[in-house]
Every structure is written in C-alpha cells, then in structure tokens.
Design brief:
Elements (H helix, E strand, L loop, with lengths): L1 H8 L3 H19 L1 H10 L3 H26 L4 H15 L3 H23 L1 H5 L13 H26 L3 H9 L4 H31 L11 H12 L2 H35 L1
Length: about 270
C-alpha cells in the first residue's frame, strides 16, 4: 500500500523524458525531407488502424460480456459452452486466427451462405456471394473480435464476481429484476475492477492490429512495408512506424490512467 502511494506521488520523470524525446523526434521529422515523406506516407494508415481497433474492440467487448454472463449463468450448458470457447480460442495465436478466418473461415461462410440461399438465388432475387465480396478488412476485424473476446470475457467475469454477494442478495430481496440488478448494482461496482485490465487489452489491440498488415490491409504497418519495399529505407521507415505506435499507445495509456484515477477519487468521496 505504501509503495502504491509513493508511486502515485512520485514525479513522472519517465513521462517528461518520453515527451522530450517525442518533441525532438517531431522536430527531426519536420526538418528532414526524407523523414517527412516517410511520415506522410505511413500516417495514411492511422485511420485504418484506429478504425480496426475501435470496431474490433467494441465487438469483442460485447461478445466478451455475453460469454462472461454465460459463464456465470445457472445453466451448465451455457457455462460449458463459454468455457469451451474461451479455452480453445485463447490457445490459438492471433496471427494464426487471422489466417484461418481470412483463408478458411471466409470461404466456408460463403459456401454455407450460398447453400442456404440457393432457392432465393434460383428465383433471381440476388446473385451468389463470392469470397472476394468479403473484404479483407472485415475478415481482420472479425478475427480480432473472436480472439480478444476470449480474453475480455475473463476480465468481465472476474469483475462481476468481485461484487459483494450480499448486495446482490439484498437487491433480490427488494424485488429488483435480473436486468436492474445488473445495471444498477453489479456493473457500476464491477466497472472499477474491470476498467484497468480492459484498458490494457485495448492498448494491446492497438499493437496487435498491426498483424492485419499480413492480409494487405492498409494500416500503419502495411503502409510502412510498402514504402520500405519501394525505397529500401528500412531504418527510417520502421523508426517512423514505431514512433507513431508509441504516440498512440502512450497517449491511450495516459488517458486510461486518468480515467482510473477519476473513478478511484469518485469512489473514495
């Protein structure tokens, strides 16, 4: 407890150092035509990186919450289904999952869709779905969603279980429905436990979103790969790629830490 207090009161020299290095790097980029060109090219992928991360994380959080509620339900079938999903998916590397969804799952989905809708296609209502109709961007988002949902579900489950059972029983005694108990009693308290690891998963997804470059999705890493392959400026290109990712992840970490401190102060008052 003493260590955590001293850490909170300690001046963040690491942040000052990081900020100074970031400013120095920004000035160096602005002063160099080569670095400016690399930065202008690579930064075109920021929008895709942010889009992939935000959409995949939102979907993974929704799926993870559903899996957590299944794991805590009174039905053995739902509990075992949730446990099966979590253990199997957590055992598969994200990169392998990306390849499987992109090159095995998507064709299987298209084949199943065409088989189910064959009568409607024969009637001329719409044409057959092609594998190329499923964009690589959305294949990547689906893969990240499926992979991260397994980890996020454990975060939600642990947070929900941390709520005092006595309060839940008291809410039952007052006649609150299951939904109202979850909304007004469980989730407001669980969110304080859930937020730190959930924020860590969000920052981790920003970094893991770079894996979508293997599918040709034009994110930061892919734009860097394209530029480096054409110019052979590998040092300059990947230095800029690392710089942009550091700016994104450190900014997110600081914002999440500020939110955690705000929630902690609100709880103490």
């Amino acid at each position: 407890m003493t260590g955590s207090r001293s850490e909170q009161s300690e001046f963040p020299w690491w942040l000052v150092t990081a900020a100074a290095l970031a400013v120095a790097a920004a000035l160096a980029i602005a002063a160099s035509d080569l670095y400016s060109q690399v930065f202008a090219t690579v930064s075109k992928g920021v929008a895709i990186t942010v889009f992939v991360t935000v959409v995949a994380f939102a979907l993974a959080s929704a799926l993870g919450l559903g899996l957590a509620l299944m794991a805590l339900s009174g039905s053995a079938i739902l509990r075992q289904t949730s446990r099966f999903y979590v253990e199997i998916i957590r055992g598969v590397p994200i990169l392998v999952l990306l390849f499987w969804i992109a090159f095995a799952g998507a064709p299987a989905f298209v084949a199943g869709w065409n088989a189910l809708t064959a009568p409607l296609q024969d009637a001329g209502l719409f044409g057959a779905l092609q594998v190329r109709d499923v964009s690589l961007l959305w294949r990547a988002i689906i893969a990240l969603t499926i992979g991260y949902a397994a980890f996020i579900s454990e975060v939600f489950r642990a947070g929900i279980q941390s709520v005092d059972r006595g309060q839940i029983e008291a809410a039952k005694a007052l006649g609150l429905s299951r939904y109202r108990r979850f909304r007004h009693i469980i989730m407001p308290q669980a969110i304080r436990t859930i937020l730190p690891p959930l924020g860590n998963d969000f920052v981790a997804m920003v970094k893991d979103s770079s894996l979508v470059s293997v599918l040709g999705v034009a994110d930061i890493t892919q734009m860097g790969k394209i530029y480096a392959a054409g110019s052979f400026r590998f040092f300059e290109t990947y230095s800029i790629v690392a710089y942009i990712y550091l700016i994104l992840t450190i900014s997110l970490s600081l914002a999440l830490r500020a939110l955690e401190n705000r929630l902690r102060k609100g709880r103490s008052t």
